[in-house]
Amino acid sequence: MKPVLALLAILVCALPAAAQDAGGDTCGTATGIPCPLCPNINFTDTGNTTGAVNDVGSIPAACPGGTFTAVSGPDHIYAFSVGPLGTSSLTITVTPIAPDAAWDPAIYVLGTCGTTSSCLAKADANGVGLAESISAGVFYPPGPHALYIDSAFAAPAAAAAGDYQVNVTGVIPVELIGFQVE
Hints:
The protein has no helices and 11 strands. By secondary structure, it is an all-beta fold.
């Protein structure tokens, strides 16, 4: 007898990358976060928000991760998708990097790109030049999500934009579709 096991591992991030170097400037050009080794995701990218558009000006204070609401800076958007089980294992970190490391990132995840009322998590607890993280424990339901790299400061302030490195790590659950013994 042979056991036959069917697993659905296309649970995160089978989205293609947009035609730019990092982070899209709109929901339509958001950079996809690939997951070639799903269920394990270990994504890293670098970019610079200088000159990007400010797509979102504020997010709800009730969104988990602090009471801040202002996100007036230029932003980059990354898209990822979570499979039918959802996940609470993702850790997202954005770190300002040289040569333009003296800026203050704010990060947040929207369940629907561009719809601030769908905010699932946010982080802007640290100051200029310091990393921001959304730790594992936030539940991301099945479906598409948008990660925004933004700032509370409006351009042209030096703290409004700059170079960054984004890291998304975690484990995405695999769904057992069927099990059969022959």
